[in-house]
Amino acid sequence: MVDVAIVGTGHSKFGNRTDVNLQELAWEAVKQALEESNLDQKDIDMFVVGNAGGWSSEPLSAIVIGEYCNLAPKGTMRVEAACATGSAALRIAYQAIKAGDAKIAMVIGVEQMHQSPNPVAIEMMGRAGNYFWEFENFGLTFPGYYALYATRRMAKFGMKEEDLGQIAIKNHYYGSFNPYAMFQKQIKMDEYMKSRVVAYPLKVYDACPITDGAAAVILASEEVAKKITDSPVWIVSQGFKSGTANLSKRDDFISIDAARLAAEEAYKKARIDFENSWRYFDVAEVHDCFTIAEIMAYEDLGFAKRGEGHLLAREGQTYIGGRIPVNVDGGLKAKGHPIGATGVSMAVSITRQLLYRAHKGTQVDVKNGMGIAHNVGGTGHYAYVTIFSLKKPSA
Amino acid sequence: MVDVAIVGTGHSKFGNRTDVNLQELAWEAVKQALEESNLDQKDIDMFVVGNAGGWSSEPLSAIVIGEYCNLAPKGTMRVEAACATGSAALRIAYQAIKAGDAKIAMVIGVEQMHQSPNPVAIEMMGRAGNYFWEFENFGLTFPGYYALYATRRMAKFGMKEEDLGQIAIKNHYYGSFNPYAMFQKQIKMDEYMKSRVVAYPLKVYDACPITDGAAAVILASEEVAKKITDSPVWIVSQGFKSGTANLSKRDDFISIDAARLAAEEAYKKARIDFENSWRYFDVAEVHDCFTIAEIMAYEDLGFAKRGEGHLLAREGQTYIGGRIPVNVDGGLKAKGHPIGATGVSMAVSITRQLLYRAHKGTQVDVKNGMGIAHNVGGTGHYAYVTIFSLKKPSA
């Protein structure tokens, strides 16, 4: 089977980006990725656009981007996996190369959520479950979904509001060093505790923002990668799983089952021991759409035992120097969460970390040369876990 | 590389299907495909949902379908390539198996366009190009786009309105034998000529309808396919290309460039000579969203020389018994065009034709054991061309 490497990365400034249109936003990331890899549009065999859509008035975002970025007439498609859209786009390009049908593929993740007024943007997020039954009939919204998990875990495991606050504080801390982050401002526990409650116990500072942004990576087959770069970052494996649409059909509210299953799949292919998984990685990007989601991610990825995720946060074990540095680019919380871009942004962050190209103040020590990205769509409706390495997987 | 076969097919009744919801509609096709292949949901490694979306109030259609069809927690994603969405879904599953990451994959194409009121449905179709510039500023709509091609070809090649009528008459003729077709009614030339003009020269009878429907295929690796069926239909190759968003950036209005390029790519991989391509195939499904699109497809696939596509129609060469039977399931024109389902429906029709399981009155003679599907998104914004065969491609 063909090994696949990341050979170029690009990232736009995340934030309120109504200064540009969708295709201009995508181009900021595409241009950077082309320059970094020293490639030209004509070298790209295909491109995939991760764009959940609905916020922009352009329904054919892949095509509009293809024309503007001069990627037409290359083959393309747009993919959606809710908030895991970017990882789904990565998957398609990865498999096209693995299957031998492309040598070089461009993955573009982009979302411009401020194209819609905020109430529309928020209603659309709320629909990211079972619209008809749980949203329309019971009025459950997105913060409400995650609040169910947070209250259950507070009752069962003794997790405190302050534990959630630790996640917000850490991610805002690292976001302050990331020039691409939407929020580059550190926060303190008292600010966190005083912030407005959205859905108890989740407060404004527990939630990621509505964001515009783009990220891009260029993938290449081993044969090509070796010719064009001396610093490939390999995709070792990816696991992907789904969950029921209705949360009422879930067994409990203490973990994101789909994410745990996706991690198990990725670990199995990469021969990683679940219990000791954190020993394999130098850095992790996890899906902190709400702070509670990051705490569950620790457990779903095997970084902490079930019920002990919040202790990792309490002890500061996910800062640089701790057990495993997590979301040291600011995470969704501070960097922002432009839906379609997030999964691709995670791949960009991991790649740059492994190559010692991270922003000042955020660089981890690279010992094992491996990183992991955990990207969840909806409330565990989709989950994608991807493992990256400086070492070729088939070596 | 792993060879990939279709081992099961399913198809819902196409039409106004507000008698069911989106997931129930999908299930009609999924159930049939599982039964035909003698497989159970637990056997499926992953599923891909082709659903352009926007008409239904459920944004996470793949997840809602996954829960209802009991496919969760298998990995999934939703893909969109405008009217070629179904073929994009097929591509993702095909490549996952080819890449060795799945053994059995389910492809579901579904759209329930009547969930939105007709003016909304039609506006959304109109946006399938460059919304901001050509739709919003110039008022171009979907029939208008294709009318540009029709008038240009009438002026340049002497094509008559009656030539377009021949396509409508043929496709309605075959649709009358297809119990799954939205329209099962034959039409005559005088009815065609009297039908209301939508965008000259295109009339109501030149246009495919707004349709609800679902189709599904199950793909398997060679190893698995051989165990579960004695009648696999192999995917030989697929070409996919894109076009500019703005029609004002196209060179001319006589052919769908992306489709021709996609055909060339598919033919190259399958070692098919473009000039004589029609000699290789027993049956073709082409994208007749408007009658003019079918005529251009004849040329873009090499069935007729450039400028002579309408002569094939005039001479009745695309009926069963002619040069090459095209759209003998009724095509988009009579069978209907539920956006996300269409490409998958094409794969179902070709598979059943090659296996002598077509509807009475529509079965072609199978001599070479090969078929081709041509699926276009927008006005050549996307194009996917797929080749199917009774013979294993690597044999």
From TrEMBL, chains A, B:
Keywords: Isoprene biosynthesis. CDD domains: SCP-x_thiolase. Residues 243-389 form the Thiolase C-terminal domain. Residues 4-223 form the Thiolase N-terminal domain. The keyword Glycoprotein does not apply. One of its GO terms (biological process) is isoprenoid biosynthetic process. It comes from the Archaea. One of its GO terms (molecular function) is acyltransferase activity, transferring groups other than amino-acyl groups. This is Acetyl-CoA acetyltransferase. The keyword Transcription regulation does not apply.
